[in-house]
Structure formats: structure tokens, C-alpha cells
Amino acid sequence: MLVQQYTLSPNTPYSTLYYMARSARPGPAVMIVAGIHGNETASIQAANKLVRMIGKDQLLIHKGSLMIVPIVNKKAYRQRIRGVPDLNRTFPRKAGQAAKHPLSAALFEAAKRYRPSWYLDLHEANGLSQRNAKVLGQTLITNPGSPAVPAARKVIKTINRSIANHSHYFNLRLHELPGSSRTAAARILGARAVTIETGWSLPFSTRVQYQIDIVRRFLSEAELMKG
């Protein structure tokens, strides 16, 4: 499949690449972002690998379209830091409100133009949620009452069946985070928005594979690709 490359916020210090893949058949629009935090490298690797997989027809888009922004915050990524300020607190909190950072503003304007029905935000976090309910490592997060909840529960059930070590299991968290890209996409765009959090303590290759496997399952739930 042809994957087209574009530039978000061109000719600025925040310039970064994003990619579009479109099926000939009409269908849902799905948006995937990674690298909002520059030190969450497995999620970035997973997003870049997804782009390559689509380009090599290793992941087939059955209908609709897919937008992937693999490294939102390139400056933070180059330094391998979360980012200052934390970009995931600078997105609009309600319709008509401006983002608090040029980069989050550019990303959200792109999202508003694209109008995704699904929005997946790839992240990483401390801990393993199966061992400690207070940590976010190995979780899917969506807003309470979100229409994404049934799909998220189904994805967790399916992915956990494939995980031999029960301490690596994923769990669902229902939590609004005003200022985050996920909550902005849900509140303002009406997207089924989910954050995917792998646990930093796991091997890098394992985290990358979990991210890819979960994204593929959500693409199937969105009917973008066949199950």
C-alpha cells in the first residue's frame, strides 16, 4: 500500500513527519500518535514499525484511512526526556479553547482536519498494573463512559490470552486527563480515544511488540483491517 509522507508544523522548530495510508474503500479514519513524551522510545519504535509494515503490505488496510505521527515531540526525543513543558498537559480542554503550546496546537489542528473516529495515543509508564493497581504500566486508558470501553475490554482480554507471564497482563483504567491529547480527542472531536501504556521495566523488544499487537487489534475493532 502506498504510504504518503507529510510534515507537521513545517518550517518551524517543531517540524516532524507524519504518514497517511488510504484504502480505496471508504471507511473509518484512525489516528495514531507516539512520542508526545520523548523518553517513551518503545512506543515510538512501534509507530515507526507500523508505518514500515503498511508500506511493505505486512499490515493491510481493508478500508478507511490511517494517520500515524511516530515522533510528535522530536526535541524531547533527541534528548530522551519527557519534555518541558509536558506536552500532554497542553492540549485544549474544551471546544474553542486554544492549545497552550505550538506543537500541541499543530497536532490538534491536524486531528481536527482529519476527524478520526478512533484515536490511539502510544505511551509508556512505570510499574506493572497487574502487581500494583496504582501504576499505569501495562494499561489501556480511556475516559469514563467512552464508547471505546467495550473495544478496550475486548482487546485486553485477547492480548492477555497471548501473554504467558500473568504479571505482564494489561488492565483497563477509566480516567479523564484534561490537557492530554486523548481527552481532547474524546471531548472535542468525539473520537474513541485510548492511551496504550506499556511498562518500562519490560524488555524493549517486548514493549514494542505489545504496542504493535494492541494497535493491530484496535484496527480490527475499528474495521480498518480484517481480524
UniProtKB/TrEMBL annotation:
Looking up InterPro entries in the UniProt record yields: AstE_AspA_cat, N-alpha-Ac-DABA_deacetylase
One term of GO molecular function: hydrolase activity, acting on ester bonds
Task: Say yes or no: keyword Hydrolase present.
Answer: yes
Q: Tell me the ranges covered by the Succinylglutamate desuccinylase/Aspartoacylase catalytic domain, including all copies.
A: 26-206
Query: Pfam families recorded for this chain?
Result: AstE_AspA_cat (PF24827)
Q: Which domain of life is it from?
A: Bacteria
Record keywords: Hydrolase, Metal-binding, Zinc
Cofactor(s) needed, names only, are:
Zn(2+)
Spell out the protein name for this chain: Deacylase
* Source organism of the structure: Paenibacillus lentus
